[in-house]
Amino acid sequence: VIQIQAGGIISERLFAGEHAFEIGACLLSLVTMLYIMIGGMRSVAWTDALQGALLMTGMLLAGLAAVAVLGGPSAFFEKVNDLPHTSLSVPGTTGSFTPEKMFTLCIFGALGSMIQPAQWMRFYAAKSAKALRRSAVIFALGLTACFLFGVMLVGLGGQVLYPLAKPNTDGVFEYRLQQDTNTVAATEADLAKRLANGAKPLPHPDVGTGSRDFDQIMVVVLKRHLPELLGPAGLLLGTLIIIAIMAAAMSTADSNLHAMSAVLTRDIYGGVLRPGASEKRRLWVGRGVIAAATVLSLGMVFVSRSSESFDPIGMIMPMSILAIAFSSQLLPVTIDVLFLKRGSRQGAIAGIIAGMLVVLMFSPIPAILTGSDSAVVGLFARLKQLADIGFCGVVVNVTVFALVSLKNKTN
């Protein structure tokens, strides 16, 4: 859903027309769906390699462009230094990311992502162990450099060019917030209180009009400032970077669609519903899953576009963090199987179940069953502010895994 929406946003910002968003979203969905259905894992691997190269090049070029637009490194950091305190320190403008939460989220978000089906399948697709090790090193070093010297510079430069807050007559920074259906102003001191009461920060009017429009900043910067800075070369460079953004959307979408199709076809359809199904039949079932998932995602994007009450992006991000937390519960048994080899089967099962139950307590289910004012919900809400939910689950998981395995060995 996120990737399809990104394709629509890019199309809307680049091309004039009443239905530019819809056309861009449909084209990205159609092209991605077709090459997965025709080429399978091989097409996903080749396109991801090309799109990954485009993405990394585009991010670095975008970072350089942001610095150049503001007058070079010295002028860039001088202007960034004048940004509001909340833009340069945790927990940030929204107040969501405390230092403790960011630390554990970065660690367990990365580790949990490695265990997810889309990534796990890549490990078995590698030509050799040497190729796998080499790709891991390139990925870690290359993507980190792109975040530090690309995305971060664009984000900071974008806040200078299109500030979230402006000083009032007293010199105090004021933010534009959306409270229900009204637009209100809040000072930096009142920001946290307003956000706690349900208000959402709004981007600069030139970037977007709604609280969902922050993602458009890169396209706005490229479209408005690169041609002014570099002339025709800036237009060419901006086009390359926007192609890189589209490549990022497609490379993520195709991996997730392929993984979903493989899991449902191999594990559910072939493993449970029709164990004796032929390979050809499984192939067509997998293609049907890809087509259905693409159409469903596209429909969710269009519905969210016309309805303020339906926000799939708002639902998907918490659910993605929850999914990574569940995936993280496979880490202890994976590490033990590959390296330690000291655990037992019963311990692994007990640890995974215990860890998943802990993660489940951080989901919306306890609030639905017991009410949002219950003591249990309040306790886990406070823990959620301090640490990543995957970390909490892994701590319980490892403890139960070790104790049960030790008990089995003793017996």
In short:
The protein is mainly alpha-helical. The chain has 17 helices and four strands.
Secondary structure layout:
Elements: H1 2-14, H2 20-69, H3 73-81, H4 85-88, H5 99-115, H6 117-125, H7 129-161, E1 165-167, E2 173-179, E3 182-187, H8 191-196, E4 200-201, H9 217-230, H10 232-273, H11 279-306, H12 312-328, H13 331-340, H14 345-361, H15 365-370, H16 375-386, H17 389-410
Antiparallel strand pairs: 1-2, 2-3, 2-4
Structural class: mainly alpha
Number of strands: 4
Tally of DSSP helical segments: 17
The major pleated sheet works out as: 4 strands, antiparallel
- Global outline: globular
| Gap between N and C termini | 51 Å
Q: What is the helix content?
A: over 70%
- Please compute the radius of gyration using only Cα atoms: 23 Å
Strand content: under 5%
Average pLDDT works out at 80
Please mark out the parts with pLDDT under 50 across 5 or more consecutive residues, or reply none: none
Helix-strand string: HHHHHHHEEEHEHHHHHHHHH
The figure for the number of domains is: 2
What does this protein look like?
By secondary structure, this protein is mainly alpha-helical. It has two domains: 2-81 and 126-158 and 215-309, no CATH class; 329-410, no CATH class. It is built from 17 helices and four strands. It has helices at 2-14, 20-69, 73-81, 85-88, 99-115, 117-125, 129-161, 191-196, 217-230, 232-273, 279-306, 312-328, 331-340, 345-361, 365-370, 375-386, 389-410; strands spanning 165-167, 173-179, 182-187, 200-201. Strands 1, 2, 3 and 4 form a four-stranded antiparallel beta sheet that branches.
